[in-house]
Amino acid sequence: MKSVEQAVHDVLWKALDGDLDVYESRPVTEVGYPFADFGDFDSGFFGTKSGLLTQVSVTVNFWDTEENRLRVSDLAHGFLWKALGVHQAYGHEVTLRAEQSSVVLSLDRSVTPPVWRGMVVLVFSV
Fold first, then answer.
1. In total, how many domains does the chain have?
2. pLDDT (tens digit, 0 to 9) for every residue of the chain, 126 residues total?
3. Is 0.85 surpassed by the pTM of this model?
4. Engineering a disulfide at 7: which of 3, 43, 45, 89 sits with its beta carbon 3.0 to 4.6 angstroms away?
5. What is the signed CA dihedral for 6, 59, 79, 92, rounded to 10 degrees?
6. CATH number for the domain including 36?
């Protein structure tokens, strides 16, 4: 069986695949816009009377040109809605914790020309 973190990763990758180009990490070479990449994964473990509960958080980034803020917003929020429908991840029952998840849109001025970044942080209970 896959680890919880890997199972969540693979389910999210499948949810993105086909909508746009997806990369495991931020590409270091020129790529076309829009695209998505995976950021950090964080797994936390909580003991209960009946065993161990896992919480997995993941950051997924959506990128597009300065003129396409609306598309970045649509991609990021659409992905959050897709994640709400994820209930199984390779044998693990998962639930998106919507109250702990978030979408942040920012203009990245560290490159010329600037680009829009939509950062989606998803928190799942397992």
1. 1
2. 889 899 999 999 999 988 799 999 988 888 999 999 999 999 888 777 766 778 999 999 999 999 999 999 999 999 999 999 999 999 999 999 999 999 999 999 998 899 999 999 999 998
3. yes
4. 89
5. 30
6. 3.30.2000.30
